[in-house]
Queue: 2 jobs
Job 1
Amino acid sequence: MSMQPVIDKAEAHLLHTYNRYPIVFDHGDGVRLYDADGKEYLDFCSGIAVYALGYNNKRYNDALHAQIDKLTHTSNYYYSLPLAEAAALLTEAAGLDKVFFTNSGAEAVEGAIKAARKYAYNRDKTTDHEIIAMEHSFHGRTFGALSVTGNAHYREAFEPMIGNVKFAKFNDIDSVKALIGDKTCAIILETVQGEGGIYPADRDFLTQIRQICDEKDILLILDEIQCGMGRSGSMYAFMQYGIKPDILTTAKAVGCGVPVGAFLLNEKTAANSLVPGDHGTTYGGNPLACCAVAEVLKIFKEDGIIDNVNDVAPYLQQELSKLADKYDFIKGERGLGLMRGLIFDTDKVKPGDVVKSALSNGLVLITAGADVVRFLPPLIISRADVDEMIEKLTLSLSEQI
Ligand SMILES: *Cc1c(COP(=O)(O)O)cnc(C)c1O
């Protein structure tokens, strides 16, 4: 099959909100994707940190097939077994008490913001509370999520935002302290900033934010939609910092391809925020999505997915560092676990050009921020996959000189 007719048909009818690469993906297996012409790609993007288990995981596929034959939707007026199972497994995995299932990451952030505002409203019966978010953050494209996204370019044309949001500098505790007031109801941040350029939070920064939140009864919302679900080397990245959020948002890998997200709350926040009538969703938590969540979490445990992350991530880091040493146009490497970035000197080489030539060499990568090539492989990769990736990337880098 030629890909061009598919591309032409799509472009004729889809709203043009993405500049897509001219590739029609057809199927995947393990850490590999195949386009409609049969060309093979090594995937170090995972559909943006979604396909944690790799493609065509038999156990996952079988569970979904079986669920499709039973029931895919009930509405939230009723219970289903997958809903109960997913809720129990996800709260256990996150170490939090209650969960609300959504259809996307942005929708999870919306719910987190509403829960935080309701918590503050219950406390003092006023409605002008403020949220502190971070510069260069990304939380999604809906109005609440966009309002806490620290990138003016995404927000500008769509003003006014929800209001009462202030932006602090990530990893600069003084800039957070300077914004805190009697009206602050929540601080929201990504434990590892993803879209902004792969910046892990500093340990001191996060610990001090937790302390401030405890002292002032401010809710800490951690957005782990990208860095969560094992990618960091722990189920959620915050677990490596010795702190817990009051509200956690998760999505992307939580369904491994089925569109699902969630926000989770500790008991204190859950008991003093959203009640029946405050929040809802038609699809959220449906049996198909929850079947995916439950099966993913079971496979994570039984297949030792996080052990593999901790086994392979240091090797990936080491090999990327070697590239940074070898090429003068690569300024360095950073990240956590299997969420990593190579930082480019954009006067010399553009990350977007590297991604394009990698694709032609059969390697799927994406960029982050203005100067980063981002690595988000399926969590099942081996060292041999890393070696193959480095080989393809090296070829792509040599084409830039
Ligand atoms: C992708 C992402 C979102 C938005 O998720 P969608 O499912 O695209 O709405 C929010 N926060 C972070 C950190 C993300 O990486």
Job 2
Amino acid sequence: MRLTTSSLLPFLARAVYAWAPPAYPDYQLVWSDAFYGGPGQLPNETNWNILNTNLGVNNELQTYRRDRRNVQISGGRTMQLVPWRDETLGWTSGRVESKYVFVPQPGKKTMAEAMIRFGSYPADNKQGMWPAFWLLGDAIRHGTGWPACGELDIMEMVNGLLTGYGTIHCNVYPGGVCNEPTGRGGSVAMPSQEWNRWRIVWDRTTEDWLSETITWFMNDEQFFQVRGDQINNHEVWSTLTAKPLYFILNVAVGGTWPGYPNDKTKDGYGAMMEVAYVAQYATAEHNATEPQTKTC
Ligand SMILES: *[C@@H]1O[C@H](CO)[C@@H](O)[C@H](O)[C@H]1NC(C)=O
Ligand SMILES: *[C@@H]1O[C@H](CO)[C@@H](O)[C@H](O)[C@H]1NC(C)=O
């Protein structure tokens, strides 16, 4: 959008509230964490499991640490997930998973969103970095395997390149309804590594599940949508739309998708993912309109 006098005012007004989950017409804020607290604290462990393990997945290199070097409240109402080179472990990094779970309700629209930026190193210094904001089906915490549990990747980025990816994983591996291990998804060009708002919306207000949708947005720009009849299997669709889901924020280092760090890859704050808030909303009405906060 061109920066006109009329667009400048809402931009400035919004910037004041950039760190708190915004209010949206027709939606109620159901759950959020805006990362209040003093600099160097761990995020609120009433809300988050802070991983302290090497998960050994996707050929990733990092060991996640419950350590304020890797996971901290900035003091400026954000959370920072910071990867570091480590003489013993190779790489350490941060990953938090919400204890909170939610189910997108029938007859409603539900939104999950976060405001995210990345450390300032250019892509040249980010080979191997793989930050993500995503959801997993809570069934994986109760014995169901992947991808049968369902996975919705709201935003993934690899190697510091300015492309955001939205993806679903479901059903069986390999192949299946979601074409594993690739999944089904779309992507969008990011304006910068600075603050962008990433959101998915479940629309369960339709007559039947076949026309329910899940839609991905970056700063209100739609970049992917999947509809029930494209999945065409009610049980699989319900793992993405009608079963408990939880939030994950992490910075992986290395792996099958991004490849591996090289000599130029740098660690520390320039490679971090910083999160201003994570929030889940739902409509009270069955046919609320999409929120419009687009300003640029
Ligand atoms: C942590 O989160 C819980 C539940 O959301 C909240 O009641 C509590 O006040 C939070 N603690 C701090 C220190 O913010
Ligand atoms: C929802 O849709 C119904 C019928 O389509 C309409 O009568 C009603 O006014 C709408 N409600 C809102 C809040 O838009």
